[in-house]
Amino acid sequence: MNTVINLVNRSFSSDATGRDWAYTASLGFAALGISYFIATKVSELGFLCAKKKSKGNWVNPEVKKEDAKVVDSCDIEDIGEKKVFCRCWRSALFPYCDGAHNKHNLETGDNVGPLIIGRKKSN
Ligand code: FES
Predict the structure, then answer these.
(1) Distance CA 121, CA 113 (A)
(2) pTM value?
(3) What atom of ligand 1 comes closest to residue 91's alpha carbon?
(4) C-alpha span between 73 and 95 (Å, rounded)
(5) Contact 73/104 with Cβ under 8 angstroms?
(6) Which residue blocks in the chain are alpha helix, DSSP H?
(7) Residue 109: pLDDT over 60
(8) Of residues 41, 53, 69, 121, which has the active-site annotation?
(9) Which residues line ligand 1 at a C-beta cut-off of 6 Å?
(10) 115 vs 13, which has greater pLDDT?
(11) Among 49, 95, 89, 55, which residue's Cα sits nearest to residue 71?
């Protein structure tokens, strides 16, 4: 460590030679390279963590992805006789079912279906 400090001190002294500057510059570039390598590895670790949350593992592949959380509400008065709500997250009419779960089930072997809310039939 003292050698490095002496080299840097000598480079900034009035009698510094081109060779002193070359050594110091080499040392600086080496330090930058090592820093860059470490920063890259650290960011890769972060990237790997984010990769674990890749689209393939998401329940919701594309509905309102710009939102931190997808929350929908529906007033009971608006339900009428029956409303069919999507639970597969593939509906273009989300939160309502448009039948996209059928294609999803065929492609994946999954068995998801909608939530149907309706009024009891009065006798
Ligand atoms: S489209 Fe998603 S449950 Fe029907």
Answers:
(1) 22
(2) 0.56
(3) 1
(4) 9
(5) no
(6) 2-12, 18-52, 76-79, 100-108
(7) yes
(8) 69
(9) 86-88, 90-91, 97-101, 112-114
(10) 115
(11) 95
